[in-house]
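thoughts on both lines:
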Amino acid sequence: DEFVGKLKMMRNAADDLGHKDFVIIARTDGVSATEAPETKRGIQLAIDRGLRYMDSGVPDLLWCEFPTAERGPTEQFCSEIRKRFPGA
């Protein structure tokens, strides 16, 4: 996955520069990419991406952008991520 590679590069660069407290935030627009074709967006896509990012062990924080303030999708995203990463 291209973005996972970028996350790893960021962590390596921060470590090489001695910035051990550097915070890396992995973001997905899987839900909010309203201009993308339907097959390239949605809550399940965002969850899958978030899990891939967290599986890499790199991000300190995970962010999912939502197009509205509806609680349902946000709660679903958090619930699914926390099944594998309870401390997230």
Q: What stands out?
A: The longest strand covers residues 25-28. Residues 2-84 form one domain. Residues 30 and 44 are 8 Å apart (CA to CA). The radius of gyration is 14 Å.
